[in-house]
Specification:
Layout lengths: L5 E5 L6 H14 L4 E5 L13 H6 L2 E4 L15 H8 L4 E5 L4 H8 L2 H4 L5 E6 L9 H15 L5 E4 L9 H18 L2 E8 H9 L6 E5 L21 E2 L2
Parallel strand pairs: 1-4, 1-5, 2-3, 2-4, 5-6, 6-7, 7-8
Antiparallel strand pairs: 8-9
Length: 240
């Protein structure tokens, strides 16, 4: 994942797309590549990349998001810097986009600058969340996002979990459904995202051959105790 110059991460509320976008940007920065993380999430969120701005800046990840009195506004604010970055071939860009077709409309407003840039549009799926409990609802969501964003989904990231109660079976079941969605959309499951410890368990087991993307929880809900977790560098495991 995160191989193209521009990677856009989308998914419904609770899918974990923000954590995946943040982890991806940090890994790019750890590789010595200039990277900007754009927060376009305007759907009433509990998790936003802008909440981790100070930490990410310390890790050499530029965070592009409204600040000041607009920092927590649920408004479709697109900063001029966003358009500049979409054209700047000297650095990589990771976009944390809105959680549904409403949020994806902000991407649609950038279609003129994204045209010709060949961005990756990765759809994050968590089948243990009410908005995407099954394959049919996930496909419908994908179609809505594509129409609003004026972009096609190019890959799926399976992120089915129940936080601390997640088991390997839950991850595998979500991955199975993610593959069904991918088949309908005509794309591939690029990776299965899991907490670092569980990722080693999943990677050691027999699987369908997709990348395991270990996650560290970086962005925390406003009502939680901040944990400044940083993704540790290390190999990405592959299911065989």
């Amino acid at each position: 994942m995160f191989e193209r110059r521009i990677t856009i991460v989308v998914g419904h509320f609770g899918s974990g797309k923000t954590e995946i976008a943040v982890n991806g940007a940090v890994r790019i920065a750890e590789g010595g590549v200039p990277v900007s993380l754009i927060d376009l999430d305007v759907v009433k969120p509990y998790f936003r990349t802008r909440e981790a701005r100070e930490l990410l800046c310390g890790l050499k990840v530029e965070v592009v998001a409204p600040d000041g009195e607009n920092a927590t506004a649920d408004l479709p604010i697109v900063l001029p810097r966003v358009r500049t970055l979409c054209r700047d071939t000297s650095r990589k860009v990771v976009v944390d986009a809105g959680g549904d077709d409403t949020g994806a409309r902000v991407l649609g407003s950038l279609s003129d600058v994204l045209a010709g840039q060949d961005p990756d549009l990765l759809l994050v799926l968590n089948f243990r969340r009410p908005f995407t409990p099954d394959v049919r609802s996930a496909v419908a969501m994908a179609r809505e996002i594509e129409a609003a964003a004026r972009l096609k989904v190019t890959g799926i990231v399976s992120n089915t979990h129940l936080m601390a109660e997640t088991t390997a079976d839950i991850v595998r079941d979500g991955l199975r459904m993610a593959r069904e969605v991918a088949d309908v959309l005509g794309v591939q499951v690029r990776a299965v995202a899991v907490e670092e410890g569980l990722g080693r368990v999943i990677a050691a087991a027999e699987g369908p051959g997709c990348e395991v993307f270990p996650l560290r929880r970086i962005v925390q809900p406003p009502f939680g105790t901040p944990r400044l977790g940083v993704p540790r560098s290390g190999p990405l495991f592959v299911l065989r």
